[in-house]
Design brief:
The chain is α/β, with parallel strands linked by helices and about 200 residues long. Helix content is about 40%, strand content about 15%. It is built from 8 helices and 7 strands. It has a 7-stranded parallel β-sheet with strand order 4-3-2-1-5-6-7, sandwiched between helices. The longest helix has 16 residues. The relative contact order is 0.18. The structure holds adenosine monophosphate. Adenosine monophosphate binds next to helix 6.
Length: about 200
C-alpha cells in the first residue's frame, strides 16, 4: 500500500466527539488540544457544530489558534441553541442524516475522540463506507486512557470470526494522544475504491 499525499490526507478533518459535559474533563481537554494542533497544522476542522462538551472545546481550541472550523448542525439543534455561534462557518441542515452526510463529504480524513452513541454511530458509518470504497480517507481513533479498547477488541473479534477481512484492519489507525493525530494522518495507508473487491467475505 502506498502513502496518502500529505495535503490530501490532512486538509479537511472531520472530528467526531462527545457532546457530554458530564464525563471526565480530561476528554474535553484532549479535544481542546486536538483543535489547537489541527489548526497549527493548517487543517480545516469539520464537526457537528455544537458548543457542548468536547465538541465545544475542540472548536474553541482551534479558533484560539486561528484555525478554520466548519460546523454542520441540524435546524432543531440550532433552535435549541446548541450551536456554536463563533465558528468560521455554521451550516444549518434539515436533519441528522444530512448532517452526517455533509460532514463526511466535506472531509478528507476522520478523527474520532471519546464519545457516546452519536460518536460511535458516526465513526462506524465512516468505517462502513470506507469498507465499501465510498470514503477513502484516513480514520484515526484517539484512544484516550484506553476508552476504545472494548471497541477495538470487538473489531478484532469481527476479523477473527470472518465477519470482516484482515485487510479491513488497515482502515483505521489508533493513537493514544492528540499530538499523534497529525503524524497518523500523514502516514495512514492509502485506500481506494478497489476495496469493494474484498468488502464482502466469501
Ligand atoms: P455523543 O457522542 O453521543 O455525545 O454524540 C455526539 C453527537 O451527537 C454529535 O455529533 C451530534 O450528532 C449529537 N449531539 C448530541 N447532543 C448534542 C448537543 N448538545 N449539541 C450538538 N450535538 C449534539
Amino acid at each position: 500500500m502506498s502513502i496518502v499525499p500529505l495535503s490530501e490526507a490532512r486538509h479537511r478533518v472531520c472530528v467526531y466527539c462527545a457532546s457530554s459535559n458530564a464525563c471526565d474533563p480530561v476528554y474535553r481537554e484532549v479535544a481542546r488540544r486536538l483543535g489547537g494542533l489541527l489548526a497549527e497544522a493548517g487543517c480545516t476542522i469539520v464537526y457537528g457544530g455544537g458548543r457542548a462538551g468536547s465538541m465545544g472545546t475542540l472548536a474553541d481550541g482551534a479558533l484560539a489558534k486561528g484555525g478554520r472550523v466548519i460546523g454542520i448542525i441540524p435546524r432543531f439543534m440550532r433552535e435549541l441553541e446548541w450551536g456554536h455561534e463563533e465558528l468560521t462557518e455554521l451550516h444549518v441542515v434539515e436533519d441528522m442524516r444530512t448532517r452526517k452526510h455533509e460532514m463526511l463529504t466535506r472531509a478528507s480524513a476522520v478523527v474520532a475522540l471519546a464519545g457516546g452513541c452519536g460518536t460511535f454511530e458516526e465513526l462506524l458509518e465512516a468505517i462502513t463506507l470506507k469498507r465499501l470504497g465510498l470514503f477513502l480517507g484516513p480514520v484515526v481513533i484517539v484512544n484516550t486512557g484506553g476508552y476504545y479498547d472494548p471497541l477495538l477488541e470487538q473489531f478484532a473479534r469481527a476479523i477473527d470470526g470472518r465477519f470482516m477481512d484482515s485487510r479491513h484492519g488497515a482502515m483505521w489507525q489508533v493513537v493514544r494522544e492528540p499530538e499523534e493525530v497529525v503524524p497518523a494522518l500523514e502516514s495512514a495507508p492509502s485506500w481506494d475504491s478497489r476495496s469493494i473487491e474484498f468488502a464482502a467475505l466469501r
